[in-house]
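Progress narrative, Year 2. Work on Dedicator of cytokinesis protein 2 from Mesitornis unicolor advanced from sequence curation to structure prediction during this period.
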Amino acid sequence: FNLQLWNNYFHLAVAFITQDSLQLENFSHAKYNKIQNKYGDMRRLIGFAIRDMWYKLGQNKICFIPGMVGPILEMTLIPEVELRKATIPIFFDMMLCEYQRTGEFKKFENEIILKLDHEVEGGRGDEQYMQLFESILTECACQYPGIFSLVENFVSLVKGLLEKLLDYRTVMNDESKDNRMSCTVNLL
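Result:
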């Protein structure tokens, strides 16, 4: 097992699908349709490949926690529903790997909270993501009653943080200083 090779693969693949020139939702409707018809959405294809390769790591997955949490988060925040549905379960697998090794998933939890703040501040994330995140992780956890309550608490924590971060991002353009201050206090 060559850790550096796999690490390079994942980082390169995430860098590819998150590059600005592939963010189709930022294009005009005509340009979006033209690219979709000619090439399809390459992000989805590469995202599915990342997912498949993640599950092939077997016992070596633990080597990528917490280091790959940020890149995987960045990928799951791309506003493409099928990509999100296919890749958000990687988070549960990361949690499960760390839990099986240490009895908790604090490294994963700390990393995702840290990275989520950075990504939402950078303009990523939306209400739909929050709902998919909650439903997918809760559904995955149902199969593991031993950690269900831990996952449920984690999902609740992340959902609350994401709500506050999205509110904060929205009010930063608001003229009212009271709204901005209130939102800042809530976030803190």
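The mean pLDDT is 90. The two ends are 42 Å apart (CA to CA).
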